[in-house]
Amino acid sequence: MSKRHLILILCLLTVGISTLLTWSRNTKDEALNANEGKVEYIIGVSQANMREKWRVALVEELEKEIQGYDNIRIITTDATSSVEKQKLDISHLMGFGIDLLIISPCDEKEMTEKIKEVYDSNIPVIVMDRAIEGFDYTLYIGPDNTVIGQQAGNYIAAMFDGKPGKVLELQGNNLPIQSEERSIGFASVMDAHPEIERSVLKLQNESKDSAYDAVLAAGEELKEVDAIFAHSDYIALGAYEALKNRGLENTIAIVGSDGFKEEDEGIDLVQSGRIEATISCPIGAREAIEYAMDILKNETGVPKQVILRSYTITQKNVENYLDKMNATYEDSGRKIVVGYSQVGQESQWRLANTNSIQTAADIFNIRLLLEDANQSQERQIEAIRGFIREGVDVIVVSPVVETGWDEVLREAKAAGIPVVMSDRNVTQEDIEEDLITTYIGADFKEEGRRAMRWIRDNVEPDKKQMKILQLQGNKGASPTEERQEGFEEVLKECPEYKIVYSDHGNFTFEGGQKIVREYLNQYKWDIDIIYAHNDDMALGAIEELKKHGIKPGEDVKIVSVDATKAAFLAMIEGELNCAVECNPVFGNQLMKAVRDLVSGKPMPFKIITEEKIYDESVAEDMIKLREY
Ligand code: GZL
Fold it and tell me: Measured from the CB, is residue 346 less than 6 Å from ligand 1?
């Protein structure tokens, strides 16, 4: 092609695109004005495709939710499963001048950069359904597909009830991320049941027809199969029709996933007895629009992630599941009473957390019965029993440790009082018991990863192996276990660093001091880096180091978690090098969740708070902005 032609084409393209953008901006103005100025916000919705049922449902539910807001308009684009087209769609939406982007990405990895570009241009981004890499977005709303797989596994294991059996898992050839996670969750339960033999049947693709063909062709091996786990309800339907064709529909139980209500979808398949159960894969359109409004109005307390709850829908419970989903919410208007069992007053973080929750209770006009347990699980359990006797509306617990709660949580459930886990979480013997309504708090593992990534990127190894001393929180507390797990996940990729000494300082100043003192009593100081699970222990360690003439922040680099004001002051002094944020100020999110819960709204599985990382280079500028 001649240079002249190329220049001509480039000119035409430039004119074309600028006309399009001008048109679109005029069109936005026209759109805004056409509604007598009522429309305040334009939300762009970039959907990966409008072919898959789940994705169509997302757009339909968003459009339904918007009907309740006359100040919002949405513009929807269909990327037809093409990453390049989704990037172009987003550019057009940005050119149109949208105020917020909602996106369900074609491909999590491929779309991460483009989503970051929108986020960095100060257009809020809500990512739905498929989580992208990193945290360069405003809010993620989606299901936990690993849990969905676990729920399917739990249902099938309960069906076998300890007896030997064979289960066939139907999955597409190249697994999209949600199927991969469902398979991991399913396999984790099957691995815990050696009496169940699991085999995988690969499908041409994740469609009903490919499931029909594969199961029909399965032949003799179907004779020993007792159950089928299908990664979606349309795969389940294909499997059912093939079994029916072979006269086996009453001998093999099918469990699907997604749980939509239309004809031949999961709910219909369960109600008509064609499949045993389906695990719902919630969409989150209501949450997306509600949070979009909070974001556009600059409300505080918007979380980083909302993980939606999935339900095991069976022939026995399908009717009350539908009642729950169709329930209308009414704000009773009466004063809500919350029983709140707090860990204690062990740290600056804790004091800020309690203060945030008390302040939010006042703002939301909620009566808060606060019991401080001074880090005793026994006292927390007593407090919960007291709230049950009191007949509160909701019980909120910040559990000092992860285990030992099932009995008292069952008592609360029997009393019909929902329990919300705040800040820390618990492990349940059986996730199906639904003993916890939702969890609000941080991603402790990510905090641990961030701490070690900072060390890897900022503390040059000046010897064969850099020695790390770890100050751990309470033994058995979720932040302790998960901050260590996340840290070690990155550490194992960095052979130049090694944790040579760990001990529990229980998140207190004195605890940090004691560990350093005891180390110095046993060894000559040879530590290069201290990793503290919270600021208070780091500050105690700093105090003790100085008593022994060791310069904290210089002779030994120190990384801590929480990022309280005291940590920023220590960074300004050069005595602390890095503070990973763990945000205690989530009272508003907690009280919003309590209000939604009491009004009957379905609750998310988890609400994860927004967090960042800070080091000495920004401490001076940031400290004036710190809320705690
Ligand atoms: C974390 C919280 C931890 C803080 C400590 O969410 O539970 O407990 O990191 C606090 O400061 O004592």
Answer: yes
Q: pLDDT tens-digit profile of 124-161?
A: 999 998 888 888 999 999 999 999 999 999 999 999 99
Q: What share of residues in the chain are helix, strand, coil (percent, to 5)?
A: 45, 20, 35
Question: Which CATH class, in words, describes the domain spanning 336-442+585-610?
Answer: alpha beta
Is 457 in contact with 617 (CB distance < 8 Å)? Answer: no
Residue 427 φ then ψ, to 5°: -100, 135
Whether 349 lines ligand 1, by a CB cut-off of 6 Å, is: yes
pLDDT in tens, 312-357: 999 999 998 888 777 766 666 678 999 999 999 999 999 999 999 9
Tell me the domain boundaries of the chain: 3-137, 146-280, 336-442+585-610, 444-582
**Residues 452-500 pLDDT 10s:** 999 999 999 988 899 999 999 999 999 999 999 999 999 999 999 999 9
| Region of residue 576 (left: phi > 0; alpha: psi -120 to 50; beta: else) | beta
CATH fold, domain 3-137, is Rossmann fold (3.40.50)
Q: Whose CA is nearest to atom 3 of ligand 1?
A: 479
This prediction has a pTM of: 0.83
CATH superfamily of 146-280: Response regulator (3.40.50.2300)
Q: Which CATH superfamily is domain 444-582 in?
A: Response regulator (3.40.50.2300)
Whether residue 423 has its Cβ less than 6 Å from ligand 1: yes
Largest CA distance in the chain: 86
